[in-house]
Amino acid sequence: MRRIVHRYILQEISVPLFMILCVLTFVLLMGRILQLMDLMINKGVAVADIGKLILYLMPSFLTITIPVSLLISILIALGRLSRDNEIIVLKSSGLSLYQLLPPIVFVSLCAFIITAVTGFFLVPYGNFATKNLLFGMARQKASIGVKERVFNGDFAGLVLYAEELPSQQDFMRGVFISDNRTLKEPTTIIARRGYFVSDPDSMVVTLRLQDGSMHTVDGDAGTYKKVDFTSYDINLDLSASIGGGSGEITKDSKEMSLTELISESRTPGLKETALKEIIIELHKKFTLPFACIVFGIIGVPLGISKHRSGKSRGFVIGLMVIMIYYVLQIGGEALGETGMLPPAAGAWISNILVGAVGVYLLITAAKEKPLIPDTVRNMVGGRRI
């Protein structure tokens, strides 16, 4: 009988879990769709590259949507069983609340493992691959985005104009540049020839100019300066060209795997702020998957509580718990970064607090006591929950 009940509960959880996971992941993707469409329409990025970007972004979405979907699906499934009095029937047949937990534990552990694997391996790979792909797009944009006899402002602080782009050639002729990166001393550069040089290893795109001159005017001092050159290199900031892409040489903490974070945390002479950030990111590799266990624990007592409302109650309660959890997580990380809490404690505080409340509610529900004590309920004038 228990196997039949367990399969039944597992089916009740699995169906909404899959549906909610797809919906939430799509919602998060829609938050990026405008930027992706801008890359495709206005920046000339190929559809295949847009598809790769979406694929690389999916792991970071899943580390959020899997725990959230798990909690809401548990609340919906158990809420439906409780609303139809099936929980009462199961208890009347001799099954305690603890004996109904195996399918929920199984789903929570599966979600934990999938989220952990995603966070350990796929997220850092996806983040770093995204940066590499954006750099490749920006490098391509730098070489093919410049139009003949058109002022190009895709490079931060620079306006580029080319008199001629010889066909089947990879250089520009008659180059004019307005360099406003130093506001006090705007510079005008004129060169006979220019071409782009990219270095994938250092992730830098350089505009190399030949046979030209630089003209600088200092408005405060009222001076004019001219410098002739045979060859002059300008490192380009491609963030404006690709909508936020960067050319950083090294990985940041979100792009490091578990082993890389551990190795980086042991680097001698590392600044305290950087060390705290790395420690927090290292612990987040575990805290985000562990949220599946926490949500599984707190979802059971909240889901089986008797209530007349339908599925909307599961969404509302789920969103409230999720909001509290992530507010605690953000606050804990902020306290860890500022030194008010140890970084590890700041990363785990949301799991500890919400998990402790979940264990208390689970034990209380197993004893068939009201989740909110009578004294508190009388004070707020609420119903029995």
Short key terms for the protein model shown above:
single chain; 385 residues; alpha+beta; five-stranded antiparallel β-sheet; 60% helix; elongated
Structural commentary:
This protein has 385 residues and is of the alpha+beta class. The protein folds into 2 domains: 2-139 and 255-380, no CATH class; 157-236. The chain is 60% helix and 15% strand. It has helices spanning 2-41, 47-83, 86-92, 102-144, 239-242, 258-265, 272-304, 311-338, 343-366, 374-380; strands at residues 158-164, 172-179, 187-199, 204-218, 223-235. It has a 5-stranded antiparallel sheet. A hairpin with a 4-residue loop joins strand 4 (204-218) and strand 5. Helix 2 (47-83) runs antiparallel to helix 4, helix 7 runs antiparallel to helix 8 and helix 7 runs parallel beside helix 9 (343-366). The longest helix has 43 residues, at 102-144. The protein is elongated and about 90 Å long. Mean pLDDT is 83; it is low at 240-249 and 375-380.
Shape: elongated
The fraction of residues in strands falls at 5-15%
What share of residues is helical? 55-70%
Q: How far is it from the N-terminal to the C-terminal residue, by CA?
A: 29 Å
| Alpha-carbon Rg, integer | 29 Å
